[in-house]
Amino acid sequence: MMRIATSLRLLPSLLTLAWRNLWRNHRRTLVMLSAIALGVWAMIFMTAMMRGMIDQMVQNGLATLPGHAQIHHPDFVRDPSVVNRFAEPGGELLAALEQPPVTAWAARLRVPAVVASEYASRGVTLLGVDPAAEAALGSLPGELVAGRALQGPADAGVVLGESLAQRLETAVGRRVVLMSQDPDNDVADRGARVVGIYRGRLEGDEERFAYTGRDSLQALLGVEGEVTEAAMNGPDYRRVVAWLPDIRRAAGASLSVQPWQTLNPFLASMLGLQDGYALVFMLVVFLVLSFGLVNTLVMAVFERTRELGLIQALGMRPGLILLLILMESLWLLLLGLALGNALALATLWPLRDGLDLSAVAAGLEMMAMGTTLYPLLELSDMAMASAVVVGLGLLASLLPAWRASRLAPVVALARD
Amino acid sequence: MSDIRCRELCKTFRQGEERITGLDRVSIDIDSGEFLCLSGPSGSGKTTLLNALGGLDRPDSGSITFGGRRIDCLPRGELADLRLREIGFVFQAYNLVPVLSARENIEFVMQVQGVPAAERHRRSLAILAEVGLEGLADRRPPAMSGGQQQRVAVARAIVSRPRLVLADEPTANLDSHSATRLMALFQTLNREHGVTFVMATHDPRVMAFAARRVSMEDGRIVADRVQEPCAPEPA
């Protein structure tokens, strides 16, 4: 206890002494500082870029349809057909969906269907939507390349993906036949005019999803006032588990409410992977740094062997010598961290409006990304980089510090 | 009873294939308040004995008692505490911490001892005045002459009033005038404060100031005599 008290009492003096020792060899300190600052910059900058990329993939993935959470009939995931439908939200559930933290929601009819033109037919997922609600949710197809969008839930027209339209050899103004099964497993079909052609965020989406008005699809299948899916968004897709229990309570036991992580485990795994990747990347950068750091401290100890022997001779306990060397390392690490963080902020700030990656856009689109990358700087990443650098830096400094504390005073004092 | 008792101290060093004898069955008693010098040629064992007395080095065999306590087998931490509280060191090559000012160098030991800041400050300025360096409190060692640095080292050694001051060739790098002033200072501290001084030296000027002169050769004490010391010069 007394030794700890002595160490604490001497801490300000040791910090001063360590600070001055640090600047005895300006050049070496500056070189090491630059290396640490660059390492920290790389940790934060690259993690922000990677996180921005993953974030965009997740956001695009969620916007494609899932939203941040969805409500279904409990059997819908196992059998996604119109058999497993439920009444459009009302009462307590509607009240919960209409207030924060829910920022937008949409109820839709989602059924497997066949779209047939006079030349070909394709299996699709037919979505009966309320265009206004879907627009608020951000889940309407990305870009309309021909025709118009759906004008309301009663719109009987159909909007096809560009790729699907090409395969069906159809175009805006032409008629196609929509076929699906009604709840009694009878075929329900009707003709529909192609009113719009969209370009999807992913080519696969263009072939997979066809859109029509929700009311018209309900009428076709004889399920007026019923839907198979209600999707909703909150303020932040990462925090969905915080507010989902309220929706579950409002939905009641007869409905299943699932977050996007359950609906799309691939996207969820991307986020988990990103956290792991960030840590591994930081550890690798630190490993490179640690060689320089340990070398700097070993040199500092070697050059000051006589002086370290002197302060031991004057009565400084070995533990305090160890603390002194660790303080020098701490200064170096904290300065490097401050510089590295400042550098990362300075380089990320100009990119806040996005980095244009259109030159490699084709590759990025395959990864469900847009052509502009928005770096995502998270405080937790800065904290993790700081913890890795300080924590492991001090750990790496223990060896030279321990060696300094074990110097025999008489041998150290005899060193030239 | 003697303040320091050494019995049958032996110490050998390895130099390549050769074994060199540092101390060969050295026994000596030093009373509190003595002003003693160890003399002898290089390699005679003076510094080795000084290091053993100060707990900087351990003898291979034999015993050292300081104030009735065996110190030759103390752990490193306790030896450090002993040096901190009881012993002041003056080395041949000044050995100041170059990044600390004269005052900070002097305060260093008191700081580790836990002396409050105001008291440290007062005592360091007083001792600097005592060694004639009152105007150099904030100057760092590289900006001071050899003599000034040595006086700072002396001030550091005596500022916390140790029972024993060990000085290894304290005048080796000083001119005649500085050496005489330093010895006069040692003598004053010895007489006025009762501090025990043990000095290893080749320097006849230092030997002349000592009240007891112990001669060493090949790691052994070959003569131990009391003498009439030079009187300090009037200030």
How would you characterize the overall build of this protein?
The complex is a heterodimer of chains A (416) and B (235). Chain A is an alpha+beta fold and 416 residues long. Chain A has helices at 2-22, 26-63, 91-97, 131-137, 162-168, 203-208, 214-221, 240-251, 260-263, 265-303, 305-313, 318-348, 361-366, 379-405, 409-414, and strands at 69-72, 86-87, 104-116, 121-129, 143-147, 158-161, 175-181, 187-199, 209-213, 226-227, 229-233, 256-259, 355-356, 372-373. In chain A, 55% of the residues lie in helices and 19% in strands. A six-stranded mixed barrel of chain A has the order 3-4-9-6-8-7. In chain A, helix 1 (2-22) crosses helix 12, helix 2 packs across helix 12 and helix 2 (26-63) runs antiparallel to helix 14. The two termini of chain A are 37 Å apart. Chain B is built from seven helices and ten strands. The longest helix of chain B is centred in the C-terminal third of the chain and has 18 residues, at 176-193. Chain B has a single domain (4-226), classed as Rossmann fold (3-Layer(aba) Sandwich), CATH 3.40.50. In chain B, strands 6-7-8-3-9-10 form a six-stranded mixed β-sheet. Chain B is α/β, with parallel strands linked by helices. The interface between A and B is medium-sized, with 25 and 26 residues.
